[in-house]
Specification:
Two copies of one chain form a homodimer. Helix content of chain A is about 35%, strand content about 25%. By secondary structure, chain A is an alpha/beta fold. In chain A, helix 2 (about 45-65) crosses helix 3 and helix 6 (about 195-215) packs parallel to helix 7 (about 230-245). Chain A is globular and about 50 Å long. Chain A starts with a strand and ends with a strand. Chains A and B meet through helix 3, strand 5, helix 4 and helix 10 of A and helix 3, strand 5, helix 4 and helix 10 of B.
Chain lengths: ~325, ~325
């Protein structure tokens, strides 16, 4: 059983867009967003509706930047952290694009990218999209406490990004290309602290990235960066230690979107950023443009998701995690 | 833009299993389940853990009936109705199969079947599984009220089935075969009554089934049955009316899993059964075996999902729905 699929005709990520909020604009990645929304309500009356606007904007920008209309798109893969993935449903329904809902928690951008790429590579269709989002205020209410409660955050906790990323995959000569993907397995190392997701998710990233290296014979030196989704400061150091113990060093080229999106000195985010939109927006706003321009040549993008729910956490369950991976390249190979 | 994909080398559904609870055993479909659990807790201490056991059993039975071990399976598509799809995560994690989480509410069995079939047809892998479940007690607690509350149910409400279905798709000469699939679009006709899901979902089934007929040139008379997931009594009559108005009659061959799974005269289920596990278990327990034996030759299987959440319902949102479709056949074509 192989978990890695090598693309036959590496498809192109022809268009992409990143949308953010005020805090994301104020961070070191602020300049890479296509659009910033200063109002956390996005002119809606609930935070949940605001999160749907995030996805609506991301899909809209990714379409228009590529010169596409919704009817050009054959299938859209999307999901988010809200119960029943309503950020996606209500955000994208007006586009009337054939839709396959996915759930991978914060690994959703990787899952959508790999499914869209496989659909194009194997000629199931001609244009496939992926989208995801997260919103600080909806995530706090759903996973922790409503903001008004004013709860204290633990040092290992992360800050859910108010952000969204969307992309279009199609057969094209335009860089970047998706060269391969690895479908992750659920990994559960017994972590039960829902305020320390980074530690829970790091073993899943380790499992998937190691599997990719084993199955392809490639090594960290083949890549400019090995990018994880939102392990944050705690999870990133766990990941680097796990690789160190297996005799592979990734520390000099590992980047984590959760560590990149905010400034730890000035933004008080504790262990870093998190949420589907964190990795989703930095992939679409920062990494894909640099791969297109040739500033970067090869990266592994491995977003990670913690597959818990508040209900099962309260029932004492451990936190199972998953990571899916895509090899993105400036060259088609 | 076409929503229907015709399989090149129609893959086989080589193995399948259906698991149910006590009420499902007492209904007219009771004899078609591979295993019945009399205890709604499944010997666990919470209903959520019980739902995970449903999926664990379904995957286990589908594997063993096909003579497979978990390591034979390249990818598993799974999801359910619980927040963050934890029924699936905790149910299947011990199998350590590469996993892609999906969310389609009660359309999940269709979505998993079509993704698994496309992965096999386009040679992405050799063996793909799909699984889903629902549990009456977890669904009541999450979507309505805890059982202890003793709330009254409206006449249009449906009874969430405690059931699960799992299947294995692979290249094989063994019937039944997946001949084509249609990816649905989100349809929202403005229904806001969360106790009348059948009416909300019927237009999605109409949209997808009509699209299949238009894109393939086929008609109802090409099929023994047109099977929907869990429209129940109310939704089924809406669906038949919608077709009637478009000049196509499906009434003589339409079957709905929600109408089939319980006896309306003796089981007090109001408008019928519902839940991912309703369509999932009847596909795997009733329809696939009859297609294998040649008792049935061609069916359309179109499960439908209502993509709402309690949060957005309380915020006054309408109920968007989706339906995905697979054409299943005794003949490979």
């Amino acid at each position: 059983m192989r978990s890695t699929v090598i693309m036959r005709e590496p498809p192109s990520v022809v268009s992409y867009a990143a949308i953010g909020g005020k805090k994301e604009e104020e961070g070191p990645m602020g300049q890479y967003f296509d659009k910033i929304n200063e109002d956390p309500y996005f002119s809606e009356d609930t935070f949940e509706k605001a999160e749907s606007q995030l996805q609506k904007q991301a899909v809209g920008h990714a379409l228009s930047k590529g010169g596409f209309s919704p009817s050009d798109i054959d299938v859209l893969f999307g999901g988010d952290l809200l119960n029943q993935c309503t950020g996606t449903t209500y955000g994208i329904k007006s586009y009337e694009i054939p839709f396959l809902g996915i759930y991978g928690a914060c690994s959703t951008m990787s899952e959508g990218l790999l499914l869209a790429s496989l659909f194009i590579d194997r000629e199931i269709c001609r244009k496939a999209m992926a989208v995801t989002s997260s919103h600080f205020c909806t995530a706090e209410r759903q996973y922790r406490m409503p903001l008004n409660y004013g709860g204290q955050r633990t040092p290992t906790s992360q800050w859910t990004a108010t952000a969204s990323g969307a992309l279009v995959v199609s057969p094209s000569e335009k860089a970047p290309f998706v060269r391969a993907c690895t479908i992750g397995k659920i990994v559960d190392m017994g972590v039960t602290d829902a305020n320390n997701m980074g530690a829970a998710m790091a073993p899943a990233a380790f499992s998937t990235i190691s599997t990719f290296f084993e199955e392809t014979g490639m090594s960290p030196s083949d890549f400019d960066h090995i990018v994880t989704g939102d392990l944050g400061a705690v999870g990133s150091s766990v990941l680097c230690s796990l690789f160190e113990k297996s005799g592979i060093s990734i520390e000099d080229r590992h980047l984590d979107c959760g560590k990149m999106i905010y400034d730890p000195d000035t933004q008080d985010v504790h262990a870093g950023g998190s949420g589907c939109g964190c990795a989703g927006s930095l992939l679409c706003g920062y990494f894909l443009p640099k791969l297109r321009e040739g500033e970067l040549h090869n990266i592994l993008f491995a977003a990670t998701g913690a597959l818990l729910s508040p209900t099962v956490s309260q029932q004492g369950e451990t936190i199972p995690s998953i990571s899916h991976l895509a090899w993105l390249s400036h060259e088609r190979g």
